[in-house]
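Email to the structure team, subject: ABC transporter ATP-binding protein model.

Hi all, the expression group asked for a predicted structure before they design truncation constructs. Nothing fancy, just the tokens so they can compare against earlier work. One-line instruction: predict ABC transporter ATP-binding protein, return tokens.
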Amino acid sequence: MPDQVPAVRLSSITKRFPGVVANRDVGLTIERGEVHALCGENGAGKSTLMKILYGMQRPDEGTIEIDGEPVTLRTPADAIARGIGMVHQHFKLADNLTVLENVILGAEPRRRGRIDFAAARARITEMSEQYGLRVRPDVLVESLGVGDRQRVEILKVLYRGARVLILDEPTAVLVPQEVEELFGNLRELRAEGLTVLFISHKLDEVLSVADTISVIRRGTTVATRLSPDATTSRRLAELMVGSELPTPELRESTVTDDVQLDVAGLTVLTPEGRPVVDGVSLSIRRGEIVGLAGVEGNGQSELIEAVMGLRSADAGTVSYGPPGDRADITHWPTRRRREAGIAYIPEDRHRHGLVLEGSLWENRMLGHQTQRPNVRGPWVDRRGARRDTTRIVREYDVRTPGIEVPAAALSGGNQQKLIVGREMSGDPRLLIAAHPTRGIDVGAQAAIWEYLRRARASGLAVLLISADLEELIGMSDTLHVILRGRLVARVDPGTVTPEELGSAMTGAGTAS
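Reply from the structure team: attached below.
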């Protein structure tokens, strides 16, 4: 039974930025000793709300109560002093320091004027065992995997006395085994009386770990304290987007006879001479989406990099264009391929799709900096780039206060829509789409599916790589399976099931 006074209560929280209201009259109650999930689309206002609770931003209106007492949180130090800790999606650890040094940094125990490392080590070891975190104090952080780093971040917050933990998209960078380990840690924390606020748009995960669920849409709470037993992932998704949940599907065929891309016998070798792409042959016609299914690490990334010119082909050919105007582009540089109408949505938008510190209009130019409207003659056309960025923001529903803000200020879903809008501009003839909906919410996902359907209907040829099997099946006209660098099956998206496709991807069976 929860205590009578909740751990946290947010009442009528409103936060405005120039040109946008991020939170409007938000209410949220979190009882002590529970895992409370906060769901919402990318850009719905979840992160802003959590920054307010953590003292990183001040609300324009509304009140915050912690343990029944109204508080004003001006800085994260104020929040920490009140027992509120936050583990950010992007970790804030120093690689060149040990786990112990990272945990105590800024809160070092002292004895006779010196840091008491023995006391710190004893406390860290005790807390690690108490909460089941299995943290080794004396290893360098640079040697740790993602799951271990996340546990260090959690311990760092607990070390400072946090009784309420805010976890911002904690599973976004974890593999399934690490997700299960994290959920085990959360249950240990709850059993020890701690409170966890879990921010996510992965609804199956929310239903498996949360005690109660709240949903925020367009900056406003639309459902609070739902029981996982009394709802479903589909119902949560519909609450998040405000309408019936769309599904990935292509409807009528738009496939033509004109081949836009023809890959023949393509082979890519590692520096040691091992083939990571092994004699791959496939073609994509105008108006066709060709899906590529495979467990990550089976050559998909190397294949698309070879098609884009980011990686050299060791054998085989890549031909581009319809019959009568076809060119062997196997050895063309990436820039020439781009200028010929090949668009690219990379699998890692932060590393390969955006300059996070750059403004939206500067990011609109990336990969297209030699083409109009970004240039006029030899000169950068800032006015043209800004004007076209404004169009992309409008047409692709990129939720932003303006085009001058840095890309880092956008939510993941809005960053992805900006990239999709940029790549769909300039009348491309071929789109390489690598995990176009990875790490984004159902609303942004549905929007990107619709953009792909429209582009396909206008004659665009698309190579689609995705780890979402339902997306691959629903959004592909033709579907190939890649295993250990080879295409091992061609399946019918109209009849294959996710289970059959998954078996073919692992080599355990055949799909039909």
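Residues 176-191 form the longest helix (16 residues). The chain has 17 helices and 24 strands. Ping us if the truncation boundaries need rechecking.
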